[in-house]
């Protein structure tokens, strides 16, 4: 039993492998579609590409030959029924078109069609095997492959009819009837071959286009609808009308019984041919629509990286290219929005987009952190500007990382200083507490990672937060006495016992747990203010370390060395 199951699985695996190979040439493509197949072809070596070309020739010739033979048999039966009065006979004589002659002529026509098709396709196969990028002329030649194959097919049917005339020895009336029959058969064959080849060469078109745009339709959807009409309606109806007219002119015998077999057979051909062509045309439209739908759904879910394979030569191809252009625009929009957010902050960017860039703002309670590097001016004067930028970027990177963890907004970088806002533009439950916690953590991080001397201050109060400037150029900022107080406190922190100071208003507004981490160290009237300010400092950052020389900053920066310690100074007692 197990051996039988294993054998069945082996046969199934072989069948699936054949299905995958056939998927390269017509039929429904496997998962990934034409784009996946084209990507696989790009990675193949020359020998593998030659193998694909050989399989394409064999499979394409077999399918075209089978279709031509089937259509020829249908043509023979229809003509035979018409000239026998509805009786199905296989005898040869002057009163029937001759099945052997039809088969011989069909074989000649098939060979002619294959030869001309290979003549058309040889340059495209050579380009594919070479693996070189396609130029504009090559892209055009690849896109018109289906039309070239149709031309070859029509020439083959012409050769088939000429062969039939030469070998059949039929009477003129039969030659005229076979001319009409071969014309209808050629129309059906050309339409079916066009739809098959158009589907089969999609990966090759993707490979040739290489992501380039398709700005116009070479073969419209209207032509495909015309194919459906020709195969399912026009050809059978013309055949029926020809039989009826032939009977009226006594060129075609009347039926011998009450059932009109010739007309019924043509109706059956109409149904069968209609089903075949509707399947091909439906797939030619359905498959690209499904691919576009998948990409659009991914874009609606936020994935803008997927693209549609552009291969269709109709308006659908223009739509495929248009969707890719739309996705490029959306991706560029998101990229610009991300860059915009980096420049002004996510909250400010959202506010600007929400209010369409209007000059908006309001009074709000907010907390601020102002941090400034000590001695950066003299440092920059003695150093290359690029070296100064390296130091500042490292400093601000630490600031940004800590501030983001506590929900703050970096309002601006001003040279060697940064202004951070809590509570605007996005409101917070307790901005003062968040700012105090961020200041403590930032003080520890800067002391550990960056050998620089700096001063930092925290303040809290009512400020105006909004856009300031002209309608043509403005920026989001905060204005008010707490902002000035914060800047003055940071100057005192540069020379104080602690590198981090906070105003009494900020500590009073914080929760009990956070306020307990701060200690009052002074009470002063800051420059430019009438009221005195209670000054607090973190209990674990009351004593600063000996600062390193600014000349060693760049060397120590890559090592993230701790500052050198010196004997501690005694902090003032709590007042």
From TrEMBL:
Belongs to the adenylyl cyclase class-3 family. This is Histidine kinase HAMP region domain-containing protein. InterPro entries: A/G_cyclase (IPR001054), Adenylyl/Guanylyl_Cyclase_3/4 (IPR050697), HAMP_dom (IPR003660), Nucleotide_cyclase (IPR029787). GO terms for cellular component: plasma membrane. SUPFAM superfamilies: HAMP domain-like, Nucleotide cyclase. Its main location: membrane. Coiled coil: none annotated. The keyword Transmembrane applies. Keywords: Cell membrane, Kinase, Membrane, Transferase, Transmembrane, Transmembrane helix. It is a multi-pass membrane protein. Pfam families: Guanylate_cyc (PF00211), HAMP (PF00672). GO terms for molecular function: adenylate cyclase activity; kinase activity. The chain crosses the membrane at residues 52-79, 99-121, 149-167, 173-197, 226-249, 261-282. Residues 283-335 form the HAMP domain. It is found in: Cell membrane. GO terms for biological process: cAMP biosynthetic process; intracellular signal transduction. Residues 367-490 form the Guanylate cyclase domain.
